[in-house]
Amino acid sequence: MTDLLQLTLQQALRDKGTTVVGGHSRDEDLLEGMQFHETSRHHDERGWLVEAFDMRWSWHELPYPYGYVVSINPGMVKGWALHQNDEDRYFVIRGVMEMVTFDPRPDSATCGKVSRVVLSADRPRIINIPRNVWHADHNIGTSDCVLMNFPTGPYNHAEPDKYRLPLDTDLIPFKFGDGVRGW
Q1: Domain-embedded: residue 5
Q2: What is the 3-state secondary structure (H, E, C) of the chain?
Q3: What's the number of domains the chain is made of?
Q4: Is 183 inside a domain boundary?
Q5: Residue 150's domain spans which residues?
Q6: What CA–CA distance (Å, rounded) separates 104 from 7?
Q7: Is 170 within a domain?
Q8: How confident is the model at residue 37 (pLDDT cuts 50, 70, 90)?
Q9: Which of 29, 92, 93, 177 has the fewest CB within 10 Å, making it most exposed?
């Protein structure tokens, strides 16, 4: 009789590593120019505090001239959007979201690549989305997702630096699936 352990192992797929020493995700799927800055949550009997950004981190060379808060309802998607002049820098305050990015930049090492990153309040960190990268934000949780954005420039009400594509565009090789709504 064949050893049941060996039989099952022959049919199994070995997991790829998802973390590195210290417990951080590998985050190997980021597009060129994207980076995280991990932060930490400080707890005491009153609650918690987390730093969203600090200029002393030297994490991002561009200034922080503007910030705003965004909410995304459960199951909804905001996107596809692209900025030509400014970068977005997201920090999730509450909930969980999947940020999907697509790189159409012809001179980028990741041109044509799609990246998916999960951002949540349980793992405080800030991430940037480079200029000319399409991005869509999908609330994959059961409650509102609330995030802060610290773009590299203030919103221009007269001429917004925002371009949009429909969620179901064939120009981006990613589909959110049935039942997902948004724009």
Answers
A1: no
A2: CCCHHHHHHHHCCCCCCCECCCCCECCCCCCCCCCEEECCEEEECCEEEECCCCHHHCCCCCCCCCCEEEEECCCEEEEEEECCCCCEEEEEEECEEEEEEECCCCCCCCCCCEEEEEEECCECEEEEECCCCEEEEEECCCCCEEEEECCCCCCCCCCCCCEECCCCCCCCCCCCCCCCEEC
A3: 1
A4: no
A5: 27-177
A6: 45
A7: yes
A8: low
A9: 177
Let me know if residue 162 belongs to a domain: yes
Which pair of structure tokens corresponds to residue 67?
């910030």
And the tokens for 72?
């995304």
Residue holding tokens 């900025």? 83
> Distance (Å, rounded) from C-alpha 103 to C-alpha 94?
27
At 149, is the pLDDT very low, low, confident or very high (cuts 50, 70, 90)?
Answer: very high
What CATH number corresponds to the domain at position 80? 2.60.120.10
